[in-house]
């Protein structure tokens, strides 16, 4: 029997909420290099589950930008907005197992009852609606669905930042899988899709490093109900440093000078942008033009810094 075994599959999973900027390109380039240097596949998933913020034209523009940069993806593009039934299936699995509950809290309720996280002030949900009896709940009132997290440490090894350990109850509390307005939450969609798409490695910015234990735990929970492929293996995670501006803030869609519409006008040659990012990633000694393909033999996670990287407009 001839079995074709795909030993490395990566993905780029942008949210189409604005024009791609240099920080997104940095993420795309590193994830492309990481998986292509292993001879693997690089898939594109458009994370357009937030109906208020996602726009199709941003997604189409983003695909054009990736082609222009020389970062082609493999296979069909996956659109999260078309996968509602799949997310509903996994939500039902969790609900049938008694691991979710409806949450009727308003934003004001949550602010009043929850303690801000000790390190970064994030709000940790206090579990107000957990364990309410059916009489106390009005199923017709709009509600979010939350996932019950254990009061225990989840450990994992990040390919770039090493060993991590996070207590989910203290880090986030019971978190949302489906929003009050019916939109699917990022955490559920990302875990289900990474598993169903056969992703073996996730490369993304270190701003998501601490979402990873939530995702590993959710993946393991689903795997415990359906212990066969595709939930058998968890992806391996590599987080990368963020590009920051002169004020030490991470680049965002508001930094217009670093978005691709400006950069494409300024640099008619995409290799200049790719070479500059490769230089920031420690792969080139100076910011000289390069094609992604040429960087493959130079790529190693060991060369990539762990500190965030200052990046002034070129
Ligand atoms: N869609 C997320 C973002 O653009 C990234 C999700 C991920 O890579 O897990 O921030
Ligand atoms: Zn609640």
Task: Note the topology.
Elements: E1 9-12, H1 22-36, E2 41-46, H2 56-69, E3 78-79, H3 84-96, E4 100-103, H4 107-113, E5 144-147, E6 153-158, E7 162-167, H5 168-171, E8 175-178, H6 186-196, E9 201-205, H7 212-225, E10 236-240, E11 243-244, H8 260-266, H9 270-280, H10 292-295, E12 309-310
Parallel strand pairs: 1-2, 2-3, 9-10, 11-12
Antiparallel strand pairs: 4-5, 5-8, 6-7
Bound molecules: glutamic acid and zinc ion.
Any descriptors?
alpha/beta, globular, binds glutamic acid, Rossmann fold, three-stranded parallel β-sheet, 2 domains, binds zinc ion, 314 residues, 12 strands, three-stranded antiparallel β-sheet, 10 helices
Give an overview of the whole structure:
- The chain has 314 residues and is of the alpha/beta class.
- The protein folds into 2 domains: 9-82 and 241-310, HUPs (Rossmann fold); 84-193, HUPs (Rossmann fold), CATH 3.40.50.620.
- It has helices at 22-36, 56-69, 84-96, 107-113, 168-171, 186-196, 212-225, 260-266, 270-280, 292-295; strands spanning 9-12, 41-46, 78-79, 100-103, 144-147, 153-158, 162-167, 175-178, 201-205, 236-240, 243-244, 309-310.
- The chain has a 3-stranded parallel sheet with strand order 1-2-3, covered by helices on one side. Strands 4-5-8 form a 3-stranded antiparallel sheet.
- Helix 1 links the parallel strand 1 (9-12) and strand 2.
- The chain is globular and about 65 Å long.
- The N and C termini lie far apart (54 Å).
- The model has no long low-confidence stretch (mean pLDDT 91).
- It binds glutamic acid and zinc ion (ZN).
